[in-house]
């Protein structure tokens, strides 16, 4: 059980080393037919949408961007659906159930990248790009080197994120539905392939929108049911939670003073963040990593113009922020309604099914068996929406950046590019299923944190400086980007999360839980240093292209228009 | 070459320079507010756990940390709202005027 808990927590909680030993198998639960029935209904609905979307997906533009006709409101919901993972719902509420306040630190980290994306990037990205963030990063630079870097970096982020999601999906579904791990991974892989392969961005977008509505709706219901018990007074709920934690500590044999301190401890930060360097580094990875996630940046190309890109971030930030407020209430709700209810506890007083079941048990406590099945189906849908977005982003990096631009030098027609995309989707899906099964017994805790660290140290500096710094050159961006990516990768391997927890060494070589505080500034520094010392002819072209790029980024003239249907 | 020429004409328009300055200052300010608020919070978590654990009212349980955390979430949403409002009212009109006056 610990293994699942740690895996799921880590899925949702990047940047923090989970050095805990990963032992013990996940317990397969009894087959849950209510949940399976509700999920089947979701699958049928989304497959019907995919069929409808498939008829509208003819060109590469349809495939990558849904023809650019998504509204800001729809895109905001889809972004929220792309970003709020099952792991963050279950993992963060579980963390709050266990430690109280500490869970809020994660939630905030996941949210604060969004304003930064809006202020510095969203509109410019929409104005300069067509399908991928590499379009933007390579706008005024030599195409082959910059795009190759961006494509590789995209694939690294996508692959690690995808493996982590697949393993989490297998564990979660085994737990919630009582299905075998392998079946769960294959079902996720096959459904994701159908959505992306046939429905492209249109189907992916609607799967994400539906999932976002379902998740926000059910989380709202749960939070409202919890708060209603306390006359909608958070103070009364917190007081009760402190009393419950105190009572549990007393029951465990603690003295009155210790028990009281244990109860109070859920109101403030615990030992979740150990040293200040890790705290800052982790904070940077969450904030700036969000701004460098390729599957998130890609969503800005689905709207018709910069104004719609802008409003999609406002909607997304609102929904995601609201979701994290709900998660906090749900975590506390689990303390007051689940932690003392013998129906949800085993003989030793631990949650049946493991720590991550806090929100699931709460669903049963407030809504009975039917709502429990519904929440389980929503959790499954949630994973699907996230992996579909990731796969589409990985496929576009291969077909649009590597094949069409690097290999064919921009001479590939839309049909050929689309063909390569679809083949890549198949390859990625097979790889995701195979790796998901292969990594079942492995500790994948580091993978999402690695994806965020790479996004913050490679993609983010390259994209930001290509947009905002006249002096950036091809050579500087590629050198700095590769250094950031490489450092994030190597330091993560040397950190406690991999070196100790996976490779079983006694002491980590790199003692901090996230590399970002080193790798990101070094990437910026390298881009600057290599660019200012770059005397090449290409460097002159790069710098002289800045004014024209800026006019287009700021005003949107010449920006790619929505294709008409 | 139409676009290049058009871009050059827009770049030479003093209203364009004024827009960049106005928008640049505004976004820089908002970015700074977000960075200071977030990393300030992280530094408090790292260095002053006791302060965050303190109840906001004596006799109550709701801690300063929870209030600040919720405030930070609301601040992130509010800042994006402030930006969008200003961009819709001011920047969009300025951009539209530039694009209209410098046709391809």
Overview of this protein structure:
The complex is a heterodimer of chains A (565) and B (104). Chain A is mainly α and 565 residues long. In chain A, 74% of the residues lie in helices and 0% in strands. Chain A has 23 helices and no strands. The longest helix of chain A is centred in the C-terminal third of the chain and has 50 residues. The N terminus of chain A is likely disordered. With 104 residues, chain B is mainly α. The longest helix of chain B is centred in the C-terminal third of the chain and has 38 residues. Chain B has 4 helices and no strands. Chains A and B meet through helix 6, helix 7, helix 11, helix 13 and helix 15 of A and helix 1, helix 2, helix 3 and helix 4 of B.
List the helices and strands and how they pair.
The complex is a heterodimer of chains A (565) and B (104).
Chain A (H helix, E strand, L loop, with lengths): L1 H11 L20 H24 L3 H6 L6 H12 L2 H14 L2 H10 L1 H16 L4 H5 L5 H35 L3 H48 L5 H18 L4 H9 L11 H15 L3 H4 L8 H32 L20 H50 L6 H25 L6 H24 L5 H21 L1 H5 L15 H17 L4 H8 L1 H10 L10
Helix pairs in contact in A: 1-5, 1-9, 1-18, 2-10, 2-16, 4-10, 4-15, 5-6, 5-15, 5-16, 6-13, 6-15, 7-13, 7-15, 7-23, 9-10, 9-16, 9-17, 9-18, 9-19, 10-15, 10-16, 10-17, 11-12, 11-15, 13-18, 15-16, 16-17, 18-19, 18-21, 19-21
Chain B lengths: L1 H11 L1 H34 L1 H5 L10 H38 L3
Helix pairs in contact in B: 2-4
GO cellular component, one term (chain A): plasma membrane
Family (chain A): Belongs to the sodium:solute symporter (SSF) (TC 2.A.21) family.
GO molecular function (chain A): acetate transmembrane transporter activity; symporter activity
Q: Return the domain count of chain A.
A: 1
Strand content of chain A: under 5%
> What's the alpha carbon Rg of chain B, rounded to whole Å?
22 Å
Residues in helices of chain B, as a percent range: over 70%
What is the mean predicted local confidence, pLDDT of chain B? 91
- Tally of structural domains of chain B: 1
CATH superfamily of chain A: Sodium/glucose cotransporter
Distance between the first and last residues' Cα of chain B? 9 Å
Largest interface: A-B, 53 and 55 residues
> The biggest beta sheet of chain B, please?
none
Beta strands of chain B, count: 0
Secondary-structure content class of chain A: mainly alpha
GO molecular function (chain A): acetate transmembrane transporter activity; symporter activity
InterPro entries (chain A): Na/Glc_symporter_sf, Na/solute_symporter, Na/solute_symporter_CS, Sodium:Solute_Symporter
Membrane topology (chain A): Multi-pass membrane protein
Pfam families (chain A): SSF (PF00474)
